[in-house]
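Module 6 notes. Inverse folding takes a fixed backbone as the condition and produces residue identities as the prediction. Think of it as a translation problem where the source language is geometry and the target language is the twenty amino acids. Below is one complete input and output pair. Work through it position by position during the lab.
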């Protein structure tokens, strides 16, 4: 613990001109007397720590002293700091903040970053992310209610292994004791998350995620063709940016997107219906029929009000 504190103190001093003993003591949750002893140890180890007298006095590193910057280039350091800053914000992780400060000592001075990353999402409870991170670190079994893709609500006991951020959403992957298999859970569908007192042994080898092979997946792809009105271009582009596009003289657009089993892809139906009258599915015909049924069911729901 002392060694870790000393290393962190070095980087603190490198990133600040002057830090008082009281500030350092509060930061590391030790007494000021301990800080004085730590400063003596750093000086004895060859680090040029100097003291500043006066009302705003304290300790700092001699001007001109820098850490070796040869291990990482400025671009690498800048990118790492940006990503870690977002992680530190999402997880409220003091360790990530400590890493940021260490990286700043070998980064370029007075450089404006040209990269921004935001991993926060309104679909995820920040407390749930923090709890799951704690459960993963401490190997604690978690229990929660979950709504699956079939809209079934179940209670799961899970040994969480890691967190994913993909497609604009957070997911947790782990061993589901309820299903006796490895599963991935979308955090926006998790409710009543609880960290139990039960512990599990760390999983040494992570199994491959369940799913069909690449060849089987390719064979199940079907092109969905959509005609988009000029009033919905931006909204559709946000959802299907990588689709094959054809623009027309009247300002409309036709897109073609390969979708895995589109007649079973409820996520796709929701997106298409969200466009309202701004987009029309041309192919496959069976998908048009599904959307018509969905719209008619919605109309009947409001007719009963």
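Target side of the pair, the amino acids:
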């Amino acid at each position: 613990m002392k060694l870790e504190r000393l290393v962190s103190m070095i980087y603190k001093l490198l990133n600040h001109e002057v830090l008082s003993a009281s500030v350092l003591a509060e930061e590391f949750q030790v007494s000021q007397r301990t800080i004085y002893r730590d400063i003596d140890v750093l000086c004895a180890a060859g680090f040029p720590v100097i003291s500043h007298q006066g009302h705003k006095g304290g300790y700092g590193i001699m001007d001109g002293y820098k850490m070796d910057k040869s291990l990482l280039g400025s671009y690498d350091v800048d990118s790492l700091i940006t990503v870690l800053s977002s992680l530190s914000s999402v997880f409220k992780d003091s360790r990530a903040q400590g890493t940021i400060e260490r990286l700043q000592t070998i980064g370029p001075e007075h450089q404006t970053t040209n990269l921004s990353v935001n991993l926060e999402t309104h679909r995820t409870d920040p407390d749930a992310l923090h709890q799951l991170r704690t459960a993963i670190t401490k190997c604690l079994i978690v229990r929660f209610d979950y709504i699956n893709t079939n809209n079934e609500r179940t209670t799961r006991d899970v040994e969480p292994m890691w967190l994913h951020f993909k497609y604009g959403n957070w997911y947790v992957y782990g061993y589901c004791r309820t299903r006796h298999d490895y599963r991935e859970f979308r955090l926006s569908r998790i409710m009543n998350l609880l960290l139990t007192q039960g512990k599990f042994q760390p999983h040494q080898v992570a199994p491959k995620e369940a799913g069909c092979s690449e060849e089987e997946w390719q064979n199940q792809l079907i092109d969905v063709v959509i005609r988009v009105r000029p009033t919905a271009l931006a909204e559709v582009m946000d959802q299907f940016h990588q689709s094959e596009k054809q623009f027309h003289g009247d300002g409309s657009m036709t897109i073609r997107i390969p979708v895995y089993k589109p007649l079973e892809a409820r996520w796709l139906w929701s997106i298409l219906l969200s466009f309202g009258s701004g987009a029309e599915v041309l192919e496959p015909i069976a998908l048009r029929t599904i959307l018509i049924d969905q719209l008619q069911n919605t109309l009947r729901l409001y007719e009963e009000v």
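Reference fact for the lab report: The first helix runs from residue 2 to 15.
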